[in-house]
Amino acid sequence: MDTTKIEYTAEDLISHKLQRNDILVAKPKFDREGTDLLAFTQINDGVKFCRIQCKGRSIINNSSSVKIPQSYVTSGFVLFLFVETSDSNQTNIYCFFESDFKGGLQWKLNSQKEYYLYISKSNFVYDFKNKVFNDSKAALIKSVINQAEIDGEFRMWSYGELNIEFPQLKVSMSGGSERQPEQNNLKTNSN
Q1: Using CB atoms within 10 A of its CB, is residue 61 exposed (0-12), middle (13-18) or buried (19+)?
Q2: pTM of the model
Q3: Long-range CB contacts (< 8 A, 24+ apart) of 83-88?
Q4: 3-state DSSP assignment of residue 111
């Protein structure tokens, strides 16, 4: 199945959503490590960014899936997923961070070293309700960008979100933490 049309639609929708949240977007002329878009918060010397991969899947006729090579997933990688349904008035855009892949329940690692996500036609709204792109996710992307180091690897960034609803009470919390990457133990030999 050719997914070119829906991929371009997804990329345009995602770019629009990011820019509405004051996240600048650039389209690279290459596709390396899954980079469809580069996201910035400002353009100046020593600019910081994160890599965005955009996926679009239709579940109008059937359920679908997404595969992402394990090597793409780093602290500076964010995956956006646009799910097209028969309701053309609904824009289903979901956002996944490194911790969703490496510690989440939805993504599974297969034997080809790819993260695999099944998109159920009947349950995707419930399954992905905490992954909907919103102001909280935009703030997390800005944090990922701000935590980027100009040289070297991104810091490890984890986030969490808690939503509790009772008939008379609704509580929502989100937060994140970071840890420095382990230092490389590279040794050079000089003769």
Answers
A1: exposed
A2: 0.75
A3: 83/56, 83/57, 83/58, 83/59, 83/119, 83/124, 83/128, 84/6, 84/9, 84/56, 84/57, 84/58, 84/59, 84/60, 85/58, 85/59, 85/60, 86/60
A4: coil
Give the strands of the sheet with 114-119, arranged side by side. Answer: 64-69, 114-119, 108-109
> 50-96: per-residue pLDDT in tens?
899 999 999 999 899 999 999 999 888 999 999 999 888 889 999 99
CB 133, CB 17: distance < 8 Å: yes
What CATH code is assigned to 4-150? 3.40.1350.10
Structure tokens that stand for 35 in this block? 């980079």
Residue reference for tokens 């004051």: 22
**Residue-range domain boundaries for the chain:** 4-150
